[in-house]
Every structure is written in C-alpha cells, then in structure tokens.
C-alpha cells in the first residue's frame, strides 16, 4: 500500500516544478522509507535529526512544550544543514 505522505511529497515536487522551483524535503527525524522514496525521485533530502543533537554545545535547540519549536540556536543549526543543499538546488535550477 502506498504511503499517503509519499503522494503528498510527490505532489509538492510536481507543484514546485510547475512554478519553476526545486523542491527540497526536510525530514525532522530519521525516516528511511521517506528518504528512499525522495531519493529515488531525485528530491534532495535534509535530515535534521539527530544532527542537531550531535552538535551539543549545551545550548537548548528546541523549546519544551507547545510543539517543541526550534530556539534561535536550533534555527541556526538547521540553517547550517540546509544552506549547502539549497545552494545546490539553486545552482541546478
């Protein structure tokens, strides 16, 4: 059975392409199935976890409660992970 999330990712890729943009998938957590799905379709993937935890500077990367949103330091770490992938996507466009 096809994963509904995979259909959504495919549609996002298609709609991005129709608008002249490249789609990049950011995964919060490790999802081997989704990663394989995206990679098989040429969709760049950035996995945000557990990478931020491995950069342990002792600074909180997420607020606790209320959906565990990124702190300013968490945003910086995620931006560092995204920057090279987005630069490649822009060059390839």
Task: Explain what you see.
This protein is mostly helical and 93 residues long. The chain has one domain (4-92). Helix content is 53%, strand content 6%. The chain is built from four helices and two strands; from the N terminus they run αβαβαα. The chain has helices at 4-18, 32-40, 51-54, 72-92, and strands at 25-27, 45-47. Strands 1-2 form a two-stranded parallel ribbon. α2 links the parallel β1 and β2. The longest helix is centred in the last third of the chain and has 21 residues, at 72-92. It starts with a helix and ends with a helix.
Keywords:
93 residues, mainly alpha, two-stranded parallel ribbon
Q: Could you give the distance between the termini?
A: 33 Å
Indicate the multimeric state: single chain
How big a fraction of the residues is strand? 5-15%
Mean pLDDT: 84
* Form type: globular
Query: If strands are numbered along the chain, what order do they take across the biggest sheet?
Result: 1-2
Total count of helical runs of at least 4 residues:
4
Radius of gyration: 15 Å
Major sheet attributes = 2 strands, parallel
Unreliable spans? none
- Give the domain tally: 1
Written as H for each helix and E for each strand, in order along the chain, the element string is HEHEHH
